[in-house]
Design a protein that fits this description.
Length: about 500
């Protein structure tokens, strides 16, 4: 699974000069996917969701494309709709170009962000895979201009094989009836409060060092830019003792397999210690609170990268060597000799820079926030709110919101943020399903209701979902079941069902 920190830091050295210049001109915030979630809604039907920041600076004909592709084992890949970031003027150019394209961007979610925005875009898509086999969901990031397309980075999420026992409880999300429902036709539940809010932030950083040197030099090459990203994650916690209590910080250094194994372990230890000293000095942190580890060569991450890259030459054989050949028995030598060094050179260029990194894990405790504070934080640090606080904020921000015009389409996106942060909390998933039904987002409602279909509090919403899909008989059956536990809302929907039918 991708982590927020894993994708916060792009390896800028990989970017083409044109892309780098554009990012310097238009800002430095990358539209990286956060909290990706992959699940089988039924055998052969795969759903993907993730969130992306909306505040991306981009202009002209330039475009950033996020392309999710499912690569099942032994079957043809299946593409999900891409996310496209572009400017208003760039959209005009894009639409003209698409008239003559091959349809690769069909169904694209076009984002035209303002220069500054704190809102997130919640992406969801579902495709028929033609298989229940497991595989890899690959997220590829491209920078495109009028004449070229350049890969910025690629990451992946492992997809387990679908269970053939998945029950088809809900019809597929096809909207038939645009019902005049409001908040009193669906179910909202106040989640439990989190007594102690323990949190953690993980940041992955790729610094530049002078040859054979372990000291972190902030102004060497683009280290300052990378340190500024570190500050963007850590400063809100480290500099705010009123809201946060830091419990511990751990720093782990990793190395790539080029060079000697013992030397690489020693180098990773020394570089981790250097970075730990920098971090402690910068935030006046007691060094005793920081744990430092040199992990040496990161073969596990290398194996993951090899298995996920469809362009990797001799990937199966390289993966086999990594798994089965111990270092002492010549693992490195066998990889270097494979096909005249072709596979090793590919990894040296494309994978090894990603292995030379620092991973900082910061653990902290957050105080409780009232409703007004939660409303402000949901746009900046929603991860520091618990389920109850997110619910209070979402309730306040959607209270009295008009469902006329475009108001219905914008209803309740705050509940989606909460559902993404707490996928295992039943009331949070139920509330997100309710908001999705109000705005006619059946795709999202399908996903949330499938997760909680065994909870009796979901029965009313399942009835609304069936009704919207055009099955009034099934809707009535669920409303009658729901009337046993939630008589007011279910009874209201039964009356509405009869009145609309008679009308």
């Amino acid at each position: 699974m991708l982590k927020i920190a894993t994708i916060l830091i792009f390896i800028l050295a990989w970017m083409p000069i044109r892309a780098e210049k554009s990012r310097q001109d238009k800002g430095d915030l990358a539209p990286v996917a956060r909290n990706p979630h992959v699940e089988w809604v039924e055998p052969g039907l795969l759903s993907v969701s993730f969130t992306c920041p909306a505040g991306i600076r981009i202009g002209g004909a330039d475009m950033i494309r996020i392309s999710p592709v499912f690569k099942p084992e032994g079957r043809a890949e299946k593409a999900f709709a891409p996310v496209l970031y572009m400017s208003r003027s760039g959209k005009k150019f894009y639409l003209r170009r698409e008239e003559f394209s091959d349809g690769a961007n069909e169904g694209a979610r076009i984002m035209i962000p303002q220069n500054i925005s704190s809102e997130d875009y919640v992406y969801t898509d579902t495709v028929a895979t033609g298989t229940v086999a497991g595989g890899v969901l690959e997220l590829s990031y491209f920078f495109e201009d009028c004449c070229s397309s350049n890969l910025l980075m690629r990451d992946s999420v492992r997809v387990k094989a679908a269970s053939t026992e998945v029950r088809h409880v809900l019809p597929l999300p096809v909207l038939v009836n645009r019902l005049p429902i409001a908040s009193d036709n669906v179910v909202f539940v106040r989640p439990e409060k989190e007594e102690v809010k323990n949190r953690s932030e993980e940041v992955e950083l790729h610094f530049h060092y002078r040859l054979n040197d372990s000291e972190l030099v902030p102004d060497y090459m683009d280290n300052l830019k990378r340190l500024s990203r570190l500050d963007s994650v850590c400063a809100p916690v480290m500099t705010n003792s009123r809201d946060y209590t830091v419990r511990s910080v751990s720093v782990t250094g990793y190395a790539s397999p080029d060079g000697g194994t013992d030397y690489n372990r020693s180098l990773s230890e020394r570089r981790a210690s250097s970075f730990s000293r920098y971090f402690s000095d910068r935030y006046s942190l007691n060094p005793e609170m920081t744990q430092t580890t040199g992990a040496g060569e990161d073969w596990q991450t290398l194996l993951t990268l090899v298995e996920a890259d469809s362009l990797m030459p001799h990937a199966l054989r390289v993966a086999e060597i990594i798994r089965e050949v111990p270092l002492a028995d010549g693992r490195k030598e066998q990889i270097k000799e494979l096909s005249g060094g072709e596979a090793y050179r590919y990894m040296l260029k494309n994978f090894f820079p990603r292995l030379r990194r620092m991973v900082l894990l910061m653990k902290y405790t957050v105080r409780s926030f009232d409703g007004d504070e939660a409303c402000r934080m949901i746009a900046t640090r929603p991860q520091d709110l618990d389920c109850r606080e997110l619910f209070e904020a979402a309730s306040r921000m959607n209270a009295g919101k008009s469902l006329k015009g475009g108001g219905r389409e914008e209803y309740g996106v705050e509940y989606d943020i909460a559902a993404g942060l707490y996928p295992d909390d039943v009331p949070t998933q139920l509330n997100a399903a309710s908001a999705a039904l109000i705005r006619y987002d059946l795709e999202a409602a399908y996903r949330y209701l499938t997760r909680i279909r065994d909870d009796e509090r979901s029965w009313n919403n399942i009835g609304v979902y069936h009704w919207m899909c055009g099955d009034e008989a099934e809707a009535r059956r669920w409303f009658e079941k729901a009337a046993l536990v939630l008589p007011d809302v279910a009874g209201r929907n039964l009356e509405m069902l009869d009145s609309l039918k008679n009308y």
